[in-house]
């Protein structure tokens, strides 16, 4: 009788034991959402050093963002492919400079793009915490831009007004990306990702004499799930 009870306990407990996580992702396709606060600016091409040195001395970064949906395909235990569809807000501004006797002023240039990042991830460490290196390309499609001036009065008041919009950027801007990431496996079908990333334009923003190239530093934070 005791042997029979012991055998029944072993049989009924087997499915529960089999559900324990293996510490590895289930092979297949994961879908996720991500958000990245970005520190964004431009690099000027040295087309005429006196001008570009002046640009570099007055242009300052802005804080933007990149957010959207992603698909992650686990090709093998060491290699994965990511494809995304993101909205990205980036740009630059000038330093504050004195403006007559009214206060200080600065100009802002804001750009919104639709990004399609395609990148490969190579895993150095695997387990509940997985560390990987990543690199890829971003075809970036121009959506809209705006230019405005900000006037900060000596009394503390701030006024803004739109500036004339110069020649619009090229419709497509090709960018590269590189970085590393950390995946935390919650279950075999769900993981959280933190990914510091660097992005830089390979093609200039617009076909003009003043050649600007975007760059940004960000930190992607995302959640991914595997649907069976």
Describe the overall structure.
The protein is mostly beta strands and 228 residues long. The protein has a single domain, classed as Beta Barrel (Porin), CATH 2.40.160.20. The protein is 12% helix and 63% strand. The protein contains 2 helices and 12 strands. It has helices at 2-18, 49-58, and strands at 28-44, 59-60, 62-74, 79-94, 97-99, 103-115, 118-125, 129-153, 158-162, 172-187, 190-201, 212-225. Strands 1, 2, 3, 4, 5, 6, 7, 8, 9, 10, 11 and 12 form a 12-stranded antiparallel beta sheet that branches. A hairpin with a 4-residue loop joins strand 3 (62-74) and strand 4. The chain is elongated. The two termini are 42 Å apart.
Name the shape in a single word. elongated
Order of helices and strands: HEHEEEEEEEEEEE
Number of strands: 12
Helix count equals 2
Could you please say which CATH topology applies here? Porin
Topology:
Blueprint: H1 2-18, E1 28-44, H2 49-58, E2 59-60, E3 62-74, E4 79-94, E5 97-99, E6 103-115, E7 118-125, E8 129-153, E9 158-162, E10 172-187, E11 190-201, E12 212-225
Antiparallel strand pairs: 1-3, 1-12, 2-4, 3-4, 4-6, 4-7, 5-6, 6-8, 7-8, 8-9, 8-10, 10-11, 11-12
